[in-house]
Amino acid sequence: MKAENKVFALVDVNNCYVSCERVFNPKLNQSPVVVLSNNDGCVVSRSQEAKDLGIKMAVPVYQIQDLIQRHQVQVLSSNYALYTEMSRRFMNILGLFVGPEDREIYSIDECFLDLTAYQDLFDLTAYAEQIKETVWKWLGLPCCVGIGRSKTEAKIANHLAKKNAYLNGVCNLIDMDPCSSELLLSQTPVSEVWGVGRNHTKALNQLGIQHVLDLIEAHPKNIRQKFSVVMEKTVRELQGISCIDIEQDTPRKQQILSSRSYGQPVYELEDIKASIRLYISRAVTRLREDQSLCRMVGVYIQTGRFNNTEKYAPYTAITLNEHTDDLLTITQAATHAVEKIFKAGFKYKKAGVVLMELIPKQSFVPDLFCDMSQRQAREKLSNTVGDIQKRFGHHFVSLGLSQNEASTWRMKQNLCSPAYLSNWNELLRVK
Q1: How many CA atoms lie within 13 A of 347 on its CB side?
Q2: Per-residue pLDDT reduced to its tens digit, 353-366
Q3: 359 phi, psi to nearest 5 deg
């Protein structure tokens, strides 16, 4: 198949976090809503009503308190358990429309689809509308679909679908009237192109390339000389030549990081150890999901970056006897590491763990003197803990005291919605 004949779609949930919240709380509909980052610090998701008020992405919430009170903006903490489960269901729906080899999960709310094999079987615009309507009917999530001859073109088509209401959430640049598509692209800033960052935008503007159409009309080789081969590929993709294919296999992680800032400063070793146990549990869950093993565990703690008092940010790593995904072994190593680096008298603001030296589980060869009976028993225990956490949530079972809701170190989520899909006690009640 020639690159010129490829067809891609990008399906993207509109205002994902806010949309997920509205599914379970219809009172938020038609109201300005923002969702905050960890520790309720900055805005990470906005409803269209909030955008219309001028609320910017990543703005610290304390800077918009007057705006929030004046317009009765609904403010929520991030509910990652809810968003992750809704994302899983969203991706599963998309998997009903294409084969597994034609789907690339790009982010929690974005997915590329390779529609090349479907273009002779369906009217792709109608097919995209069916995808959008199914997601809305089954999940209640609004989404937009962009279709193009390359992934970059599909990405910009998705942007056009979001910004132009008359397109009804679907923009097919392949079948669109050329005059209409040129008009839209001539009005779209070049900064909206996938992979064109702030510095690239400034450099392109200095060359007279202000809008997407200007970049499409640029000569790829000239762009390569002034920028890079990556930017040349971007131009060719915008011109309809596919240079970036669907990634069927997610690159294996080199390390797994789990960290959080504390809701309040922490002074005691036991509080830090409790937080580390929770972070290790989350990291090991991801390790096992990736079918990997680790050989080294890194741990760090640090005081606040903006403290006027003395700063302290130690880090240490412990090498395990062998590669493992055993929750008990990794937790013991991390706990020992914390005890080594902790110093009393400091006001700690953050802690984290890093699992390193990862290898595929299937390639692991046990040591000659490995106690296989103990390893199998630990494997069974870890599987049981993992199954319980997957079904009832990480709060349901843990090693030691790490799930105390009253702990001062826990992340601020004072405005968090219930865990509608992962906690039996917080399921919606129909009266």
Answers
A1: 10
A2: 999 999 888 887 77
A3: -135, 155
